[in-house]
Amino acid sequence: MKKYLKYTNRPLAGYKVFKKQVKIPKKTYLIMSLFFMLLGFYILELTNVFDTELILLETVLASSIVLILFPLLYIRKKRVGNVVLTNDALAFQSYFNRYRLIFFNDIAKVKQTKKNKLIIKGKKKKIKILIPLYEDNLNVLKTIMNYEGHFKQKRKHYKLFFEADRVDIQELTPATDPQTSRLVERFHDEYKHVTPGFIKDLIFYNAEIEKVKFVDENHFYFILKHVDLKGDYPENTHFEAMQTDKAMALFQAVSHVEVYTLGSNKKEDVELLGTSLQAFKKLSKGALIIETNFKELEARFNADMVIMQGTTKMNARFSFKDIIIGFNELKQPSWFEN
């Protein structure tokens, strides 16, 4: 679809078209046949086969609206409404053969009626899909909406597979330890997306710190104005680096902490602020993470952050087991995508 290419700047990797399975009542075609009978009778009169003038041209033209145009509009309305499903979006065919495209990530609310109709509301669009009118396997759309966190369910990671005439969905269960699962569970009510790992797909650049909070003596997290997510991050469906809204970055099992200020001469003008998590309390609102490097070493990561607090440059170094990111929306492309 051209519209999909326009929004994502990439071709469709896989998709499935679900056609509407609708039968047109026979009486619709019978009504249309009345016009042709009338037209035939008018032609016979016009060619003097019948020596009568019962039917006028105005009658034929007026009847064409009632007996042809209206039934054709009805048939068109019944037949449009095909659904195209991709790995990150769905498109619904409108009356004039245009497709309304809505990405799963932009869906705000989904409601299912008693007649098995899905009412899908996006930021600016609303789509209504009556599931029984389509092929049986369109039920996969309900499963996708379930995995996306609608129907009062928690969001799950999944992957779609398009093969021949079917769509398969596979739940992706990340290998998380019980403690990580509890931490993820803790933040699910506050953030729509809470994901552990994928540290290589995270960028902390000009990320403003709003708060520093502590879970316990080994876990802490930043409340940031934003985080940048690379295109390969699982919650990023835009296929380019995107900036989030307010985000949470939680560091697990932190150890070997060093927080100190840097003067103009890094080697000589250095002041150690602390060697425990409590040193992060010295970061006030508005502190800016201007550079971050993560290095993986023996199932752990070493972090090296450069932070500006006012005119003071600070350096924070620590080791941690893993990271958990929480956010609600992707706001705009990252600065380096422009």
Number of helices: 5
What integer value in Å does the Rg equal?
30 Å
Largest sheet: 10 strands, antiparallel
User: DSSP strand (E) fraction?
Assistant: 35-45%
Average pLDDT over all residues = 83
Order of neighbouring strands in the sheet with most strands: 10-22-16-13-12-19-20-21-17-18
Judging from the principal axes of the Cα atoms, what is the shape? elongated
Helix and strand content put the structural class at alpha+beta
Q: Quote the distance from N terminus to C terminus.
A: 25 Å
Query: Low-confidence stretches at least 5 residues in length (pLDDT < 50)?
Result: none
DSSP strand count: 23
Total count of domains: 3
State the order of secondary-structure elements, H for helix, E for strand. HEHHEEEEEEHEEHEEEEEEEEEEEEEE
Describe the structure.
- With 338 residues, the protein is α+β, with helices and mostly antiparallel strands.
- It has 3 domains: 2-20 and 81-171, PH-domain like; 26-79, no CATH class; 178-337, no CATH class.
- Helix content is 21%, strand content 38%.
- A hairpin with a 2-residue loop joins β20 and β21.
- The longest helix has 23 residues, at 57-79.
- It starts with a helix and ends in a 5-residue tail after the last strand.
- 22% of the residues are buried.
Briefly, what is this?
This protein has 338 residues and is an alpha+beta fold.
What distinguishing features does this structure have?
338 residues, alpha+beta, PH-domain like, 10-stranded antiparallel sheet, 4-stranded antiparallel sheet, 5 helices, 23 strands, elongated
SSE topology sketch:
Layout (H helix, E strand, L loop, with lengths): L1 H7 L6 E4 L7 H21 L10 H23 L3 E4 L2 E5 L5 E5 L5 E4 L4 E5 L4 E5 L8 H9 L10 E6 L2 E6 L6 H10 L5 E4 L5 E2 L3 E10 L2 E6 L3 E2 L12 E3 L2 E5 L3 E8 L7 E5 L13 E10 L2 E10 L2 E9 L2 E5 L2 E4 L5
Antiparallel strand pairs: 1-2, 2-3, 3-4, 5-6, 6-7, 8-9, 10-22, 11-14, 12-13, 12-19, 13-16, 14-15, 15-23, 16-22, 17-18, 17-21, 19-20, 20-21
Helix pairs in contact: 2-3
